[in-house]
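Running log. JK asked me to keep both predictions on one page so they can be read side by side. First protein, sequence followed by its tokens:
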Amino acid sequence: MSSIYRSEEGKSSILEEYEIYLNELGEEFTREYVETRFGKTHVLLTGPLDGKPLFILQGGNCVNPMTLSWFSSLFKEYRIIAPDTIGHPGYSEEASISTRFDSLALWVSDLLDHYDIEKSAFIGPSFGGGIILRLATYIPERISCAVLVAPAGLAVNSKIKTAQDITLPLVKYRMTSSPSSLQKITDNMSCNCMKEMDKNIIGKLFKYVSIDQDLPKLTEREELVNYTSPTLLLVGEKDVFFPADKCIERAQKIITNVEAIKYDTGHFPSQDVLVQMNEEIGRFLQNNY
């Protein structure tokens, strides 16, 4: 099996950061491995055992605790189930699975079956949002409601814009480890507000991980004809990857029951915007779950 890591030393460094970040969350997590048809999946669990299940799906090419930190206000009320995405940094199987067809949906379905959950609420930022859209395409009956945060699978920025803001500085950073190149990338991803802890991890991921650029496919209208679950779309006006207005326009065309909110932020939300997002998510879940 080919590894997503460029070296064993790099892998150890990333997993060390994973543990540091998990400890910083200050919550009691249990962790376990679940066998799926695509391989072993490492899952973090927290929140009350009798709480309603809430799957939080990891953003792409980051570490699971970083994604979880965005939604920590939900930990006290819901039973959080947060798998490390297969083929992404973390403790799950390292071999990637197809992002285009039903593989991601079947992977989530295996996890739902393991926990004996017929249907659940889902939150997915970025790549995680794209996974939810794959689930909505192939197994929509398993989604009670969904929150898509700057999701893949709706619209993408121009290749020229992405190359200028991300790809070229990334190539330079990998060649030179230039702090200014990393700063440019993280500033463009977050509108100059990325936490130092996140910036440090992003730098290591860029250096030590073969970044998976195969995003979940753009969702077609006919794929979601059977998906009617309440859906909340939260997007950033300055998102360097998934432009807000295009995502909203696309979502309103293909998702029957969607509410969209746009924030003055980038792909990585500012702390102030995260507070606002969590308030909206809490309201949405209370009303729809």
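And the second, directly underneath as requested:
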Amino acid sequence: MTSPQGFLGFWETTGSAKTFTHPLDPALLDAWVPRSARVLDYGCGYGRLTAELAGLGYGEVCGVDVSAALIARGRREHPELALMRCPGFPLPFGDGSFDAALLFAVLTCVPGDADQTAIARELGRLVRPGGVVYLSDVPLQGDALNRERYARFAERYGTYGVFETPDGGVFRHHPPQRLRGLLREAGFSVRKERTGVVGTLDGRTAERLQIIALREPVAAGPEPPPGPASG
């Protein structure tokens, strides 16, 4: 659940012992991802949702994370799952290898613009045309605690919405248009959105935004000009 480039220390130590709580929406999943789909759970952590997908009958699911500690925990807790540590891009899969990808509470753990863009682009490579990304993440919150810490850390990180937690984590909440824009730039079109409330790592609650985005077909190139007439 971490960036390929930075802020990994937290997820190799304190963060690797956290209990993740960001839930799947089974009805939304059922509507867009058939059981026969090849699914990539990017930022799988210790395989919590990877295991849930397998339990729901998804037979081809692969979980990937950059944290060695989280993948080691996942292999202990779910030895039956295909969990891989992949510290950078490209991931070891061919173009269009997956019918769907999950991106659950991942971008909130990736504070940098460039790292977020790299993740979205890699999913754009890996999800086949006509496949989907199911993203769920935390938009900017309107409560006093979050507004205060957004303002307090904005100068340090250069982005409103990035903040630190007392246990050493660095997180980011997003304007919804930022999440939509990342997907569009990677070749996806937003097809469905839902909002709701989820638990957070510190035991609070937060509003979440779920997005289903379809990988657009690759545009065909222009027709070549006609050759000279034979005669």
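Observation for JK regarding the second prediction: The first strand starts at residue 38 and ends at 42.
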